[in-house]
# Entry
Amino acid sequence: MEFRLRKGKTINLGPSPGDTPVIARTVRKVGVMARDYPGVIFDLRVSEGDQVRRGQLLCVDRHRPEIGFVASVAGRVHQIRQGARRRIEAIVVNVEGDEGLRFDVGAAAQNDGALRNLLLRSGAWLGFRTRPFGRIPDPAGRPSAIFITATDSNPRAPDPAHVLMPLLDSFKRGAQALSRLTDGPVFVCQAPGPSLIDPSETLQVVRFSGPHPSGLPGTHIHHLWPVSDQRSVWQIGYQEVAAIGTLLSSGEATTTRTVSVAGPGVERPALVRAPLGAELIDLLGEPRTDETLRVQRLVSGFSLTGTEARFLSRHDLQVTVFDRNATPEHTRTALWRMIDRLPLAAPGATQPSEAFERLFPFDLLPVPLMRALAVGDIETVERLGGLELLEEDLALLTWRCPSGTDYGQLLRGVLDTLHQERAA
Amino acid sequence: MTPPPPFLSRPWDGNRLTLVTLLAILAPLTASIVAHGSVRLAALALALVLAALWHLAFAKLRKRPPEWGGIVTAMIFVTLVPATVPLWQQGVALSFGLVMGDLIFGGRGRGFLSPAAVSLAFLLFSFSVDAAHTTDTASALAALAGGALLVIAGILSWRLVIGFSVAVAACASQWPVPMIWPAWPSATLILGLVFLIGDPVAAACTNIGRWLYGFLAGGLLVLLAHAGGDILSSVVFAALLAAIFAPLIDQGVIWANIRRRARRLRHV
# Structure
């Protein structure tokens, strides 16, 4: 099956790392951030100063203690940061040594329950996100389908085909294993080109091409298997699948990912092999001083959806580096500079435009959806298909909208409210 | 303090939209000033002062920075209003439109009508206005240029424009209205389409809705003109009526979309 999408826009943001070799850079600290997992409350299994091995349990979810969060490096727990109401916000680990934990994978090869247990204990389970709601799936849940996203249309992202080349066997093994977690199909969504896996009854290859967001799971799910209140699917990234494949063959949790480090603030974009939650400044590889931090602004993720952060977020495969001193492109003409000086009420109201439809490759109505989000009309958002979306799917609308409203953030609020209602 | 995403500068904000619309109305306004002379200049000065006053008053009341959209409303109004209307009548009508068509809703984008259309409708209702039918080619060309700029900028919907034109052509062949079809369209008609009917805030906000809204506005225009209205009042009231129906059209499109997706969900 092939989908050629015409709607969307790939914003040109300069060079991407392309086919450059993957390099390793020394990372000194990693962080596990609660912010990456909406709805999760960390319950600690270690304390500050403890020595941990790679793959060792750091904490679990308080409501679903089967779900484990593991250390992506061997080292010492440096800091456990608490936020409001003493909720754990972050666990920071100092890298020391390279001792890894070995998981027993014998039973997982045959027994589906053992497979689930292995994924849950090794932290590989965190690669899944449910749709609707974008949360970690329940340990016993059976989705109606699983979507493997083996394409990435985010500008400057690593090229999945290039990253997967040495990992194809692991990827295939991982994809096979996933088909044991669902009664429905497993879709491998990839860019046009040679098939990444051998299609079978349960494993289907679907090709997507077109401008961004043709490579986002939300777009794939909408076109292949729309979700609703009654039907939920899981999505998982290609590197997570390869990591599961490696885990099943070697028993070691693969806790590194290949991320692209690019943006206006770096001279040469690079593909870097980095542990999950790596401290971003270490990924730059240059001499790291306070001066670097003052000049460069580090964003985990793509410029439209990322957050300025200290550590790499769980699902991000790119780091965008900005130069703080650079002038934005549009302010180079005197007229725009003058207009920008004028006072502006933000957030204002949106002005409908056909441009929104041109950026939105969904059979949903963007302007009514944006209005419903802006006024906080949860029921209308749901009726207009809000359950099919996550924050990243609205990023282009946020970028194009003159009002200055962040629709992704509003959608997160709506999804959290709806999830709470369902749970109650 | 972490600045919110996106980290890319946005291509559009309210002020830039206003600026582009202002550039689009500038050429027709200049053409109109050239055609009518100093009468227009006085009207423009009055309109700009009124727009500034009302916007500043509401900005103070709401404790928000003032919007600049009032300038554009004033310019559209001055370009379209017949030059023979006394200044005090123009002032009353424009004030009504600015306040009731835009500001009481909370500003641009929060209302559902074009403030310039409300002003002109108020003027045509309240006072006896003699709108001469002008066939000034320069003004028409200037209006076309402004419309083209708005279509390129994505502010004016091409679907709406084509839907409107098709509806006018189709209806005018049934009920002949010589001043609209097949004669060269007058500046008033083009300006009305571009700035009153095509106002993105007043128009439908879904793609199918934009076609239907264009058809409706075109049909209403021919109907009103056929019933004996002059070109200005026909286009103004067509814009006003169509804008009132735009939310209903959108609601219909929304219902159809929800039904279609529900059906798809059952079948996949």
Summary: The first strand of chain A starts at residue 2 and ends at 4. The mean pLDDT of chain A is 90.
